[in-house]
């Protein structure tokens, strides 16, 4: 595995000691247990259906999740979205989707559900190695929005993915792009405060921190102050109409930093 490089093996092993396998076919968990043996004492937790998979995700806090899709009624996309939008400790854990259906629709669906990697069945040891290396040694930024929660889709790594390739230098990493994306998410979250309050508030809290970092990077005290005001509002979490009014005022203050051309931008969120 990994050309037998012990240092790489150690780095990968440290990040996947608890592995959840949600698959109605018990042989999949046994196969993965055999293939992961070179990594040392990896604990495999098999689950035959979505309900038991979610229950195990809550109790064992897996560091890596394999989920089957489109077999025996298994909806791996649903489980992925549920975990991503939950309060589970493992909600950001890498998820590798395994399926016999490697259609474009399934691959794009996996990406948009928040899956890290996609692996066609039957898979080889080489297939597994590439996915493990991607999810452990090549981490992606986490996107906490309203419509999407998961790893940055612009850097989708799956070998099955046939869409635009990621670039060595991605403009999305620029300060201006970070500002634009964070503000778009804030705006979307504000619109979802009534329909999806839990995720909206989570997205606002994360973007307030991101906007403060952007403000500090560009030395813009007004942006820093506006972001800090939103952070304080999210921490207080006080109920009532006045608290909502205060929250919307803080959001409006941040929206003043949105460039006109950003209004039609799409971004990763």
TrEMBL record:
PROSITE patterns: RESPONSE_REGULATORY. GO terms for biological process: phosphorelay signal transduction system. InterPro entries: Bact_response_regulator, CheY-like_superfamily, Sig_transdc_resp-reg_receiver. Pfam families: Response_reg. Residues 18-136 form the Response regulatory domain. Keywords: Phosphoprotein. The keyword Phosphoprotein applies. SMART domains: REC. This is Response regulatory domain-containing protein. It comes from Caulobacter henricii.
């Amino acid at each position: 595995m990994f050309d037998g490089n012990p240092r790489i093996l150690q780095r990968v092993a440290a990040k996947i000691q608890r592995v959840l396998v949600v698959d109605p076919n018990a042989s999949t968990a046994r196969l993965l247990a055999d293939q992961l043996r070179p990594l040392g004492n990896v604990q495999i937790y098999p689950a035959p259906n979505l309900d038991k998979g979610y229950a195990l995700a809550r109790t064992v806090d897996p560091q890596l999740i394999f989920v089957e899709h489109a077999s025996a009624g298994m909806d791996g996309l649903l489980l992925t979205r549920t975990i991503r939008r939950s309060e589970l400790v493992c909600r950001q854990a890498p998820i590798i989707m395994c399926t016999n259906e490697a259609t474009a629709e399934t691959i794009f669906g996996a990406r948009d559900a928040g899956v890290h990697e996609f692996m066609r069945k039957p898979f080889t040891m080489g297939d597994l190695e590439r996915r493990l290396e991607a999810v452990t040694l090549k981490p992606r930024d986490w996107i906490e929005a309203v419509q999407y929660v998961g790893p940055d889709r612009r850097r989708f790594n799956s070998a099955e993915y046939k869409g635009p390739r990621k670039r060595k230098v991605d403009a999305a990493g620029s300060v201006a792009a970070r500002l634009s994306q964070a503000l778009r998410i804030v705006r979307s979250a504000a619109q979802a405060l009534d329909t999806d309050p839990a995720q909206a508030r989570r997205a606002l809290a994360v973007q307030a921190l991101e906007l403060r970092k952007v403000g500090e990077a560009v030395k813009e005290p007004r942006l820093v102050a506006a972001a800090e005001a939103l952070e304080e509002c999210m921490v207080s979490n006080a109920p009532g109409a006045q608290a909502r009014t205060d929250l919307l005022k803080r959001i409006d203050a941040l929206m003043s930093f949105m460039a006109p051309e950003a209004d039609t931008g799409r971004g990763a969120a």
